[in-house]
Amino acid sequence: MSGGGTVDALFDALLTGDFLLALIATLAAGMMRGFAGVGSGMLMAPVFAILFGPVETVATIILMEVVATAQLLPGVKGHVNWRVVGPMGAAAALFMPLGGWLLVSLDPALIARGIAAIVVIFALILLTGWRYDGPKRLPATLGVGALSGVLMASTSLGNPPVMVYLLSSRDPATVNRANFTGYFAVTLLALIAWMLLQGLISWEAVLRAAALLLPFLAAVWVGSRLFRKSSERLYRRVALGLLLCIGLYGLLR
């Protein structure tokens, strides 16, 4: 982890209007994470990027997300389809270095917009009620994981391919939510390890994540309680609506 600044200076920086704005985004993101099992990073990233910068944003979010995943995983692990999630997460981890290379070799904004356009199309199709009835074959699962890993490291837009792939099936909401959580359990640890090796996680990010963690986890718990009271139809509408918003954000940012 890189140094920089003192702990006292960082805590002084936390007592600002910017931190209050970050806290509001964190609470909204935590509720989405607890309810849908996905989407919190995309809600926090636009606000955090303005306040803290892109690298600090990714580091802060993944440190918070890995703790939230540890909070959610015990309650959903029995519903996770590890035959799909395991290979998909492993492929994502293996292809993260390629994403890092693309980040410095190509225009990440162009890549993100291309993927975002595809996401918007598929989100609109899925909102019509279409489902894929076939099995999730290993080559397709590995391909989706590899694409997600590349995008995760190069554009931070790594979740939409996985969301499209999992939500296109007829799996119930409990399974989809659990699969998202299981996928994050694999990929977040890999992403943290990769960022540590690259020296991209600073002590400032660690302390900022720690300051936001308790409100985030409390909001995750509230979102989880709301999920228990929701219907299959409501969950699917929220998840697909989020996917559509992510795609539009990627096209317009």
Attribute tags:
0% strand; 253 residues; 11 helices; single chain; globular; 81% helix; mainly alpha
Can you put this structure into words, describing what you see?
With 253 residues, the chain is mainly alpha-helical. The protein has eleven helices and no strands.
Kindly, what is the distance between the CA atoms of the first and last residues, rounded to a whole number of angstroms? 30 Å
The counted number of beta strands is 0
Low-confidence stretches: none
CA radius of gyration is: 17 Å
Approximately how much beta-strand content do the residues carry?
A: under 5%
Helix and strand run: HHHHHHHHHHH
Explain the layout of strands and helices.
Blueprint (H helix, E strand, L loop, with lengths): L6 H8 L2 H20 L3 H13 L1 H23 L5 H24 L2 H20 L10 H17 L4 H9 L5 H25 L5 H26 L3 H21 L1
Helix pairs in contact: 1-10, 2-3, 2-10, 3-4, 4-9, 4-10, 5-7, 5-9, 6-8, 6-11, 7-8, 8-11
